[in-house]
Amino acid sequence: MADFHQNGNIATLHNLRTNDAAALSRELETFANTRKISLILPSLFSELEGEALPKILDELSEVPYLHRIIIGLDRADADQFRYAKQFFARLPQDHIVIWNDSPRMQAIDDRLAQLGLGPCEPGKGKNVWSCLGYLMACQDSSVVVIHDCDIVTYEKDMLARLVYPVANPNFPYQVSKGFYPRIGHGKINGRVSRMLVSPILIALKRVIGDRDYIDFLRSFRYPLSGEFAMRTSILPDLRMPSDWGLEIGLLSEAWRNLARKSVCQVEISDAYDHKHQDLSPEDKSTGLSRMSIDICKSIYRKLATDGTVLTEETFRSLKATYYRSALDLLEDYYHDARMNGLSVDRHQEERSVEMFAENIVEAGRVYLENPAETPFIPTWNRVHAADPDLMRDRKLAAELDFKEIGSA
């Protein structure tokens, strides 16, 4: 995005098109001599059969500064795990595929459950948490990067720009979050970020007043992006949401634990696209409907921990204010698209707004029925305090699976 605007809350690092991508890579190679960089790829087995991941591996194969790649594999049986090992074998970097559904890993999960520390539900949050535990057990990386496996427009330069702010020892950043325009097939995409998160943050500010947390979230150009880089020193105390509120949850942890000068967002792509979820207005347990409810609950819980009192009246007012704010933004997106030769399906956008408005109240109802619910996976510091051997045993289980299953 060709500007140099700063919002005054967190640093925004732009791509001003004045530096060669190869130059960033060379600098990162230098940093990596003393500050090892690892990459986590949370993946469903189904993504191995999609169009995006093979191209991602092609690009990653040319990245010289990565110390290790950790692939967390979900929803795979033994044969699929064997296939995944072969699929990722062309990566030249040291790498491991963690079979999260293996008997060994399930036994470790049972130990966690007996301690009352098991993850609430399977999903991306648990997958990332598991991979972070393996990384910490390795004790040899200073920086970790996380990005999705369904990015159809992936280029290795995205990784370099994402990790540079936290890998550079002269920068103060502990967390870097990617942003970009979601564009594909002649359309503006990113409905949940555009038509839910942006207008609900506007509405919250109008309904409950100024809050530092709301201002913090509003500072991010793309708060729902799945691309993060972090210094590993912050990982042991990181509370990972187990539901679809992962990205908002990680930003909330940054807001809770870090100074504003330690957080930045960085422009990583001119045109980004990935797999699209169905709207699913008829089923609140799947698709964008489920995602929108989980995101709203994540925001409500964080506001409550900061002392905000939320009531039925709050959520009714929020719904009405959100609806008006979202329709106003829809006009802005429509004009922006037209000026750039892109399209916006106004009927589908308004359908999304109507569903999100209903789910704002639904999420409020769920929150009020169980305000003490904590859908967070325990921090690795707490797990280690309860069972000092578990992190080591989990690492050993993952390595035994990778070594033995499918080997001659």
TrEMBL record:
SUPFAM superfamilies: Nucleotide-diphospho-sugar transferases. Gene3D superfamilies: Spore Coat Polysaccharide Biosynthesis Protein SpsA, Chain A. InterPro entries: Nucleotide-diphossugar_trans. This is Glucosyl-3-phosphoglycerate synthase. The lineage of its organism: Bacteria, Pseudomonadati, Pseudomonadota, Alphaproteobacteria, Rhodobacterales.
